[in-house]
Amino acid sequence: MGYQNRQPPEGINYEPQGWQRDFILLVLGFAAGLALLTWLVILVLGWSARWIPFSWEQSLSDSLNEQLEPTERTEYLQTLADELARAGGLNPKLNVVVHHQEQETVNAFATLGGHIIVLDGLLDEVDSEQGLAFVLAHEIAHIHYRHPLQNAARQTGLGLISALIFGRGDLNWLAGSGGQLAMLDYSRKMEREADAWALEALHNHYGHVAGADSLFRWLAEQQQAGALPEWLSTHPDTEARLERLEQLSNARGYRTDGTLTTIPSVAP
């Protein structure tokens, strides 16, 4: 049998649908793969963060200890926080350190190492110790569940992925972003988890949960007036939050009436 120089089939190098379709599929596949990778990294880092020793977390926030200047107000807040921590059953391996800042903003937040920052505006707006105690207990709950570290780990993971893909390798920027977002960007699921823990702590400490909703009622008024604080955008809807607190109280049999305690006048 002799050699035959056959012609290739007709249209073998012709793509009737053009290159655009393949390009779009390639881009969509890359985006889907990136989204899946990001989701897995966030999931794994958030889950594994709780196993990191608390002492490591504290070492990341040593600078906050240097800023601690005991005052009558700090001592009052610390004493109240310690009582609430015991009432709520805070993991004994963790400890809470409360600071206050002379700012008019109505807010408080927990950050790495068991530190809670209370802004003085909060003390001016809550009309009872129970209202303040619920906020403090809510922040203690974030520490109990290691939420600040989980958020820091997740945000740092996101930063690393961004650096690997888009070429940004500033690790200081990554760490800074993680820490800052850890203070501000709690997920709504974490907020609901912290609310439930705080309500129980309040009930165990005072024997009722009256006044727990005072800050949220103030926030609801601000919302109606169109003056809602920007930080509240990451939190559950205020009305939904009030409704959930009421449902939780009823489901657990907590008393919703009781004597409210006046916040003592203490020097800042």
Brief descriptors of the model:
268 residues; mainly alpha; three-stranded mixed sheet
Tell me the series of helices and strands, N- to C-terminal: HHHHEEEHHHHHHH
The structure class reads mainly alpha
What is the mean predicted local confidence, pLDDT? Answer: 81
> What is the rounded distance between the termini?
104 Å
The tally of beta strands, per DSSP, is: 3
**Strand line-up in the sheet with most strands:** 1-3-2
**Binned strand content:** 5-15%
What is the domain tally? 1
**Low-confidence segments, ≥5 residues, pLDDT <50?**
174-184
Shape: elongated
Helix tally equals 11
The level of helicity is 55-70%
Question: Biggest sheet, in brief?
Answer: 3 strands, mixed
Rg on CA atoms, Å: 26 Å
GO molecular function, one term: metal ion binding
GO cellular component, one term: membrane
Family: Belongs to the peptidase M48 family.
Protein name: Peptidase M48-like protein
Structural topology:
Blueprint: H1 18-49, H2 54-59, H3 62-66, H4 72-88, E1 97-101, E2 108-111, E3 115-119, H5 120-125, H6 129-144, H7 147-166, H8 171-184, H9 188-206, H10 214-224, H11 238-252
Parallel strand pairs: 1-3
Antiparallel strand pairs: 2-3
Helix pairs in contact: 1-7, 4-6, 4-9, 6-9, 7-8, 9-11, 10-11
Family: Belongs to the peptidase M48 family.
GO biological process, one term: proteolysis involved in protein catabolic process
Protein name: Peptidase M48-like protein
Written description of the protein model:
By secondary structure, the protein is mainly alpha-helical. The chain has one domain (52-252). The protein has helices at 18-49, 54-59, 62-66, 72-88, 120-125, 129-144, 147-166, 171-184, 188-206, 214-224, 238-252; strands spanning 97-101, 108-111, 115-119. It has a 3-stranded mixed beta sheet. A hairpin with a 3-residue loop joins strand 2 (108-111) and strand 3 (115-119). Helix 1 runs antiparallel to helix 7 (147-166), helix 6 packs across helix 9 and helix 10 (214-224) packs antiparallel against helix 11. The longest helix has 32 residues, at 18-49. Residues 73-247 form the Peptidase M48 domain. Its cofactor is Zn(2+). The chain crosses the membrane at residues 23-47.
